[in-house]
Amino acid sequence: MLNGLWLGFFLVAALTALSRWLLGGDAGVFAAMVESLFAMAKLSVEVMVLLFGTLTLWLGFLRIAEKAGLVERLAWLLGPLFRRLMPEVPAGHPAIGLITLNFAANGLGLDNAATPIGLKAMKALQELNPSSTTASNAQILFLVLNASSLTLLPVTIFMYRAQQGAADPTLVFLPILLATSASTLVGLLSVALVQRLRLWDPVVLAYLVPGALGLGAFMALLAGLSATALAQLSSLLGNLTLFGLIVLFLVLGWLKKVPVYETFVEGAKEGFDVAKNLLPYLVAMLCAVGVLRASGALELVLDGIRWSVLQLGWDTRFVDALPTALVKPFSGSAARAMLLETMQSQGVDSFAARLAATVQGSTETTFYVLAVYFGSVGIQRARHAVGCALLADLAGVLASIGVCYWFFG
């Protein structure tokens, strides 16, 4: 899928450039495309310089949190909820612990730890599955919640905004928090509707009702604030949460007798390895997106959407952020490239760039998650997993648009 998407970017760019030359006499389009290749390659390296530092720093602190038992503690707290949402999984089965560990790791931004834990959880669920090729209800719920983007601390997006010169990199913290809550809630409700899960179970309600009421009260509080006050609050909470978690990790590590310095260095080394492996993918996708933009193909599609939106009498500023939303279900690296390109072409603090960052933080690479998680256990029939996961993605995109108009409109 990723091979076809990447090749398609170049082929569409080539056809568009040829049509502009042969039909419009614009021979300069080829020079613009070659120039874009080198510009995007340079941008990739610039992004990587900060990415090395950010991943090294963050994975160092996250390793302290792991050693201090924070992830295991979260798993213990969430265990009763998932036992009710997956009734076919016996109480005490290892899958429950692995599932809660996976979600806890995702919530803390431990992507490198979340994926292998998630694959182990899927394998444990497959042991309970009567079919070797058809996804069980528990597997579908687990996958859809993974595909609904559970990360609540989008450090990588803050890093991209910082690298592009944002006045306040954490300004999108609250919009992402609200949008990702919407995508996860829609993912859960859609699966519950299809599978007829008993969401009114007292234990489930004990988890969901306080969270929903808290989110509702928080949104009611935000509703009374001006756009300037919303931006200031988002900045304050984003920075406070980020630094507060670092302090929490260090204090918990110290209380648990974890050698915090040595543990930080251990995690930081892993961050360095993760970062250097990302450079080829970043170069590949950024160059493909750059050529697509320089050829005029991307602008042609956006102009068509913009015209349709104008006919409906709507504001069109959100259209420039749609490339990130359109490719995110297929490829995280392509969406990341679209986000960076939007920041470059529109300005990092433009409405489009802020919206693209919010979309990136509240949606997931649905087809990649489906391929990796189901492919690891030989599942061929996904049943309602694809529909529910895409519905969650759509909710994340629509919520991102609404929230960004609310905060930055």
UniProtKB/TrEMBL annotation:
Residues 51-159, 276-379 form the Nucleoside transporter/FeoB GTPase Gate domain. InterPro entries: Gate_dom, SpmA_SpmB, SpmB. The chain crosses the membrane at residues 47-65, 140-160, 172-192, 204-224, 236-255, 278-302, 385-408. One of its GO terms (cellular component) is plasma membrane. It holds the Pfam family Gate. Keywords: Membrane, Transmembrane, Transmembrane helix. The keyword Repeat does not apply. PANTHER family: INNER MEMBRANE PROTEIN YJIG (PTHR35793). This is Spore maturation protein SpmA.
